[in-house]
Amino acid sequence: MAPPRLDLSLYLVTDSSLLPLGRSLADHVRASIKGGVTIVQLREKTLGTAAFIKLGKEIHAITKELGVPLLINDRVDVAKVVGCEGVHIGWDDIDYESARSLLGPDAIIGLSVSNHDQLVLALKANPTYLGLGPVYATTTKPDAGALLGDLGVCSLLEKVPEHIPTVAIGGINLVNLQSMFLKIGLQDPRTRSRKPKLLDGIAIVSAIITSMEPEKTCREFKGLISSSRAESTWDRSVAKLIPLLLPSLQRVRTCPPLIHHITNHVSSSLSANVTLAVGASPIMSDNPAEFQDLAALNNGIVALVLNMGTFSDESPFMLALDAHGLMNPVVFDPVGCGATTARRKFAEAIMYTGCCNVIKGNEGEILSIAGEKVVMRGVDGAGQDGGKHRERELAEICSKLAKNEGRPDFDPCKKPKLTRR
Ligand SMILES: Cc1ncc(COP(=O)(O)OP(=O)(O)O)c(N)n1
Ligand SMILES: Cc1ncsc1CCOP(=O)(O)O
């Protein structure tokens, strides 16, 4: 019988030093697997060999009972003695070929990749999977090196062949996960062959290990993972959509985000009231002096909404993207784009920063930022040719634009081109 397919979707990497006071790693791992963790890596940087082996055997008994693989970080010798399913190694550890020959052809061996040079070497080795990171800032690995950001991960993924699964690691948590999936995308195991390549999972240390309720936290991660996959199935019946939206609405209630709006004077008070009605906190500001502060308020649980309805000068928009762009989700509403050349150029400049996660618009606006010639009456639609495109088609264009796909001259490795820092 073929071994079960490797499921990397929710990958727990341990660090006992981060456990809440009085909690044991064994209980934490058990609860996390009950909550949906699909693979565990024992990463215990301060343990000596004997203690590492003892803990490895204890944790392996649990992972085996619950049917998920256990990998050991760095130490092939420990993995061999524990008898677990494999190892995760980096570039300061034993080389891949030696690890493979010591552990055998069936062992799971993951390799870390932080840049394109490492990717080239890793692909020659042909490991079981790749760990791409650090994506975002993390205190868990002080020597983690330069952050990839969403665009850096996308740029690596472009070069990863279909048969090698990938996970993203570094600073991923329940707050930034949805935005990360919007920008990078998560593979649906039922529809494997997809271009561009998407992630197969996320690897998490602190967001699970520091949780007082690891089972609940993992269920929340699982909820976001399955809703991200469900989004691509496009079953838009209300009965299917409501359960997908509810967890997001509940999260807004339990963890209210601050929404910084730069919006037009027609809809300003409406936008503030709608934001309050869903349980978030609005702040309306087009004063660049406060953008850096706003982007970091509320423990970083912040999003930016840009509405260019009554724009005059592009600089507040660019400075706001500069402050929020790589950290916080950005919603862009290209109001009236297509009505005038100035609006089209303005919207294009914003799109080319590569910072927009969600693009919201009507048919004319979406088609015109996608580069099609549309004649718009005003801000209210697509003019004479309106209504030709079905919503699904338009939403797919939006999703591609948000991921900067289909832009031949867009280089995802480059940092967004912003006016000044
Ligand atoms: C899944 C996953 N990806 C990357 C890493 C980092 O591994 P490495 O580069 O060996 O660094 P250390 O973990 O040893 O500090 C990982 N552990 N897991
Ligand atoms: C092991 C590792 N490799 C790259 S970042 C990282 C640490 C991830 O930890 P956290 O999920 O707490 O940011």
Automatic annotation (TrEMBL):
A Pfam family hit: HK
UniProt keyword list: ATP-binding, Kinase, Magnesium, Metal-binding, Nucleotide-binding, Thiamine biosynthesis, Transferase
Residues annotated as domain Thiamine phosphate synthase/TenI: 10-181
Pathway: Cofactor biosynthesis; thiamine diphosphate biosynthesis; 4-methyl-5-(2-phosphoethyl)-thiazole from 5-(2-hydroxyethyl)-4-methylthiazole: step 1/1; Cofactor biosynthesis; thiamine diphosphate biosynthesis; thiamine phosphate from 4-amino-2-methyl-5-diphosphomethylpyrimidine and 4-methyl-5-(2-phosphoethyl)-thiazole: step 1/1
Alphabetical list of InterPro entries matching this protein: Aldolase_TIM (IPR013785), Hyethyz_kinase (IPR000417), Ribokinase-like (IPR029056), ThiamineP_synth_sf (IPR036206), ThiamineP_synth_TenI (IPR022998), TMP_synthase (IPR034291)
Reactions performed catalytically: 4-methyl-5-(2-phosphooxyethyl)-thiazole + 4-amino-2-methyl-5-(diphosphooxymethyl)pyrimidine + H(+) = thiamine phosphate + diphosphate; 5-(2-hydroxyethyl)-4-methylthiazole + ATP = 4-methyl-5-(2-phosphooxyethyl)-thiazole + ADP + H(+); 2-[(2R,5Z)-2-carboxy-4-methylthiazol-5(2H)-ylidene]ethyl phosphate + 4-amino-2-methyl-5-(diphosphooxymethyl)pyrimidine + 2 H(+) = thiamine phosphate + CO2 + diphosphate; 2-(2-carboxy-4-methylthiazol-5-yl)ethyl phosphate + 4-amino-2-methyl-5-(diphosphooxymethyl)pyrimidine + 2 H(+) = thiamine phosphate + CO2 + diphosphate
Cofactors: Mg(2+)
Keyword Nucleotide-binding (UniProt): yes
Protein name (record): Thiamine biosynthetic bifunctional enzyme
Source organism of the structure: Discina gigas
